[in-house]
Amino acid sequence: MRTLVKAAVLTIASLSAVLPSMTPAHADDWRYRRHHHRDNDGLALGAVGLATGLIVGGAIASAPRYRNEERVYIDPPADDYYEPAPVYRRPRPVVVNNYGSLEPWSPSWYRYCSNRYRSFDSRTGTFVGYDGRSYFCNAG
């Protein structure tokens, strides 16, 4: 809003300087001016208008758009902080299908796990996965 007001004031000031010279207040005959171009008023008015436009345009363009104020962080008072409410979610149901699975520590379970996993340890019933962790063998 300030830049709009500044631009309006500069425009009015520049027009008040240029307009009096543009009015036909001369006592000369227009025919005499038309045929004899002694007074180059048009050229002078053009130069004055160009200079005024450059000055006003430069003033508008050089106005800072944003203030360079230093931002300061202020800690909120301790009374304003509320701990967020806990979110309770129902656990997902786990479906365990044991139909047709082998009983752990049975001979068929040992056979299945040793054939399936190369790193199967028969003492602990675990194997080492690709991530380097040990997993219990679930045959099924």
UniProtKB/TrEMBL annotation:
Protein topology in the membrane: Single-pass membrane protein
Record bears the keyword Amino-acid biosynthesis: no
Main location group: membrane
TM segment ranges: 43-63
Localization terms from the record: Membrane
InterPro entries, per database record: BA14K (IPR012413)
Signal sequence bounds: 1-27
UniProtKB keywords: Cell membrane, Lectin, Membrane, Signal, Transmembrane, Transmembrane helix
GO CC, any one term: membrane
GO molecular function: carbohydrate binding
Pfam families in the record: BA14K
Sequence similarity: Belongs to the BA14k family.
Role, per record: Has immunoglobulin-binding and hemagglutination properties, and can bind to mannose. Essential for virulence. May be involved in LPS biosynthesis or polysaccharide transport.
Protein name as it appears in the record: Lectin-like protein BA14k
Organism: Ferranicluibacter rubi
